[in-house]
């Protein structure tokens, strides 16, 4: 049986990045106001470890929220040394870090390898040069490709994050970015819809009518086409949608854009909805039993039972059950 995976997140906002991307206000996105001190990091790790119930598990510590490899080397070492006792005890299996593509070099990679980092996530966001320019990213698509190849050469696991709906973006360009992430050999990815956060450049542009975010339905449609590409290529999708920090959930920091606390569920609902719609052409409807793979039951039924309700427009009764013999998004239908 595969172990349960956990990542203990340590958020370090605005720690090294000299750029202010148009969409970014790290303090508001992470819900963190201050760089955590040593005792806070240790306590957070211990609290998370104590909360994990599964004995068969694999735990990682992730340094997120900033550009970790842009931090002065001694400071990087300090943070990495703090978590070494948890690696030595076996309570934590590895470390992962997120950083910018232009902050990757031989020296940085050697340090990360020495201290047990196994996964490096790059905020690629897009492989379209115009989107990167309009977003004030401060790096090129070529720099992302160079960094990705260097990470893989040193045998790290590579994560490439993408963001949909940035200034200048289009569905066509987003699909190209997803395909390039696959071509570069990434092991995992995250898909974030761009939203307008208070006190960002995009906030100013939104108020001036210079930027219009994707609607929720548009973002779901884009992600619905991207997710199957990653699945088919065997990439692990770590997240679809922004993490629901307190500021985003309350709306205090969110100005506009396709944020939804169940964004991934909405996307998976639409993917399953497209698969099930042909059943509406059934000539002799009665009741219908739909067998779906294990783990796919909620997505097949749909967010707020959307897909079940769709089928109830034709069928007298609709029942979904799990079938461990099925895989992926296979399904079997019995009508009558």
In summary, what is this structure?
This protein is of the alpha/beta class. Helices cover 39% and strands 21% of the residues. Strands 1-2-3-4-5-6-8 form a 7-stranded parallel β-sheet. A 3-stranded mixed β-sheet has the order 11-10-12.
Descriptive report:
A 7-stranded parallel sheet has the order 1-2-3-4-5-6-8. Strands 11-10-12 form a 3-stranded mixed sheet. It folds into 2 domains: 4-261, Aldolase class I (TIM Barrel); 277-335, no CATH class. The two termini are 37 Å apart. It has 336 residues and is an alpha/beta fold. The longest helix is centred in the last third of the chain and has 18 residues, at 216-233. α8 (171-183) links the parallel β5 (157-164) and β6. 39% of the residues lie in helices and 21% in strands.
Which helices and strands occur, and which strands form pairs?
Blueprint: E1 4-11, H1 26-30, H2 38-51, E2 57-64, H3 73-82, H4 84-89, E3 94-99, H5 106-114, E4 117-125, H6 129-134, H7 141-153, E5 157-164, H8 171-183, E6 188-193, E7 196-197, H9 201-207, H10 216-233, E8 236-240, H11 246-250, E9 254-256, H12 263-276, E10 287-292, H13 297-301, H14 306-312, E11 317-322, E12 332-335
Helix pairs in contact: 8-10, 10-12, 12-14
Mean pLDDT: 92
Structural class: alpha/beta
Considering the protein shown, what is the CATH homologous superfamily of the largest domain? Answer: Aldolase class I
Count the DSSP helices: 14
- The stretches of 5 or more residues where confidence is low (pLDDT under 50) are 28-32
The CATH topology of the largest domain is TIM Barrel
Please give the CATH architecture of the largest domain: Alpha-Beta Barrel
Q: Name the beta content range.
A: 15-25%
What's the level 1 CATH class of the largest domain? Alpha Beta
Cα-atom radius of gyration: 22 Å
Globular, elongated, flat, extended or rod-shaped: what is the shape? globular
Strand ordering within the main sheet = 1-2-3-4-5-6-8
Separation of termini? 37 Å
Order of helices and strands: EHHEHHEHEHHEHEEHHEHEHEHHEE
In the residues, how many domains can be counted?
2
Total count of strands: 12
Helix content: 25-40%
């Amino acid at each position: 049986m595969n172990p349960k995976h956990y990542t203990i997140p340590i958020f370090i906002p605005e720690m090294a990045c000299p750029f202010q991307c148009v969409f970014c206000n790290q303090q508001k996105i992470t819900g963190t106001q201050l760089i955590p001190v040593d005792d806070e990091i240790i306590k957070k790790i211990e609290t998370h470890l104590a909360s994990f119930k599964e004995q068969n598990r694999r735990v990682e510590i992730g340094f997120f929220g900033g550009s970790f490899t842009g931090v002065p080397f001694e400071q990087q070492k300090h943070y990495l040394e703090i978590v070494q006792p948890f690696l030595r005890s076996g309570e934590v299996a590895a470390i992962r870090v997120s950083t910018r593509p232009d902050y990757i070099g031989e020296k940085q990679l050697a340090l990360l390898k020495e201290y047990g980092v196994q996964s490096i996530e790059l905020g690629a966001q897009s492989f379209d040069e115009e989107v990167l320019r309009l977003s004030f990213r401060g790096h090129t698509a070529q720099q992302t490709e160079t960094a990705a190849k260097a990470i893989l050469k040193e045998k790290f696991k590579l994560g490439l994050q993408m963001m949909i709906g940035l200034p200048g973006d289009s569905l066509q360009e987003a699909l190209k970015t997803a395909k390039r992430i696959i071509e570069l050999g990434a092991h995992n990815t995250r898909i974030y819809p761009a939203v307008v956060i208070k006190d960002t450049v995009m906030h100013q542009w939104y108020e001036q009518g210079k930027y219009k975010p994707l609607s929720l339905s548009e973002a779901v449609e884009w992600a619905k086409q991207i997710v199957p590409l990653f699945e088919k290529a065997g990439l692990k999708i770590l997240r679809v949608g922004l993490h629901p920090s307190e500021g985003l959930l309350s709306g205090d920091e969110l100005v506009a854009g396709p944020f939804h606390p169940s964004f991934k569920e909405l996307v998976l609902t639409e993917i399953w909805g497209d698969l099930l719609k042909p059943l509406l052409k059934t000539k002799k409807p009665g009741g219908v039993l739909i067998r779906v793979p294990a783990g796919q039951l909620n997505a097949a039924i749909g967010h707020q039972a959307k897909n079940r309700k769709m089928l109830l427009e034709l069928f007298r009764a609709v029942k979904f059950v799990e079938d461990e013999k099925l895989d992926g998004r296979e399904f079997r239908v019995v009508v009558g």
